[in-house]
Amino acid sequence: MRVCSYCKKNKKLTREHIIPNWFLNINPSPDDIQFSEIVPRKFLSTDSVIKDVCAECNNIKLSALDAYGKSLYNDFFIEHVFKDETIDLRYNYDLLCKWLIKLSYNSARVNKADLEVLNDYGKYLIEDRELPENIIVYCGLISPSNINDYENITLASRHENCELYAPDWFRIGVFRVPEFDSQNWVYRHVTINSYSFFMFIPKLKHEDSYEESKLIEAIKKANTYGVKLENSGRVIFPAPVLDAYSSFAVHMYNNPITYDIPFDNISSAIVNKEFGLVLYSIPREDIESGNTSEILQFLNNIISCREVTLGYMQKIEFMVDGYDDDPRELYEISEVISYFNNLNKLFPYWMFLQSEGGQWLKVLVAILCEGKTIEHKKVAMNGELMKDLLDTWFVSLNKLSHQCAISERLNRKISEDAMKVICEGRISS
């Protein structure tokens, strides 16, 4: 027997649906598929489950939350909200929050993301306990789109005679808050047709009023999350300002390979897991001429959208070509040093790309930190330069992780793997 993810007891485990089974019965997908980040091509059976919940938690305690979610769906979410329509939403704040967290926690376990925070919430979902007060929940409305003219897509009115693109969705995922980054919070969204919920969930027992105030300030500044839900159990939504087509366009932009939007062949192959490693050779001619344009185009393409960025994570090994007959080490050649110092200023995300078991970071650190060969083929570094370089790389990794909603677990793994490569055979002085 294994441990139940909710009650943490050793019991026989059952299958728990990621998207509630009642929703799939009401709204079967015509192709019997749904979008998922964790598989090549990103589509899998709508009946996706995770088998790590005991029967008691699944069929009694969590089932009650799903029943509440179904009642809200039947009362509110089942209907699209059109242009110029306002909604008076009535809800039980504690039950709604628990249901949304339950959905997010199930999805997070599949993706192995945000569990450092969400694992501790499992017990709240099966016990008669109120959630911590510093959880923040917002909700915004998405209107169907009038797509009669693709060059002028607008929010649709309910009685408008037009071709509609409707938000017929049940989506669970991650997001990030512009101008706020903290590993003490996780950010999850659940979108059900016209209703898009955004949850800002703190680590349990994390009480930092200053940090919380900065988060609230960033939320208000972003002004994209809709209306804050309060304990009162009632909120009156203003009319939608976002249409479904525009919302889906952002999703497609972040997942161009999945939706067959033209992209380069290498990126398409790496995202689709047709091969597991990219070997990128930097020619001597570019180094001696100082030409970084080609490699920068390749690198900036990688970080242009989330799907491609995640596809390349720990998948590239760089090499320098054309110096095989030169008796000097790369870190002893002035043109090489100058080239990579300039390149590193423009692209400091090397840790994220370093392939597992590769050697590139070791070479690059020696080039950038005045590497010198000493006894037993070890390389000595300028300690101050190495400290500054690693500070820059860690900050850049955190920035990229925030930009692409990469979990703390993956960030930590990338950092640890990179340091293993860098520190092997190194001496700082």
Which helices and strands occur, and which strands form pairs?
Blueprint: E1 2-3, E2 10-11, E3 13-17, H1 21-26, E4 33-35, E5 43-45, E6 49-54, H2 55-77, E7 87-90, H3 93-111, H4 115-118, H5 122-126, E8 136-143, E9 145-146, E10 154-155, E11 164-165, E12 170-174, E13 185-192, E14 195-202, H6 209-222, E15 227-228, E16 234-237, E17 242-243, H7 244-254, H8 265-271, E18 278-283, H9 284-289, H10 293-302, H11 306-311, E19 316-321, H12 334-346, H13 350-353, H14 360-368, E20 372-373, E21 379-381, H15 383-403, H16 408-423, E22 426-428
Helix pairs in contact: 2-3, 14-16
Structure, described:
The longest helix is centred in the first third of the chain and has 23 residues, at 55-77. The termini are far apart. The chain folds into two domains: 2-254, no CATH class; 265-428, no CATH class. It contains 16 helices and 22 strands. The relative contact order is 0.09. It has helices spanning 21-26, 55-77, 93-111, 115-118, 122-126, 209-222, 244-254, 265-271, 284-289, 293-302, 306-311, 334-346, 350-353, 360-368, 383-403, 408-423; strands at residues 2-3, 10-11, 13-17, 33-35, 43-45, 49-54, 87-90, 136-143, 145-146, 154-155, 164-165, 170-174, 185-192, 195-202, 227-228, 234-237, 242-243, 278-283, 316-321, 372-373, 379-381, 426-428. Strands 8, 12, 13, 14, 15 and 17 form a six-stranded mixed sheet that branches. Strands 10-9-11 form a three-stranded antiparallel sheet. Strands 20-21-22 form a three-stranded mixed sheet. Mean pLDDT is 91; it is low at 38-43. With 429 residues, it is α+β, with helices and mostly antiparallel strands. Helix 14 crosses helix 16.
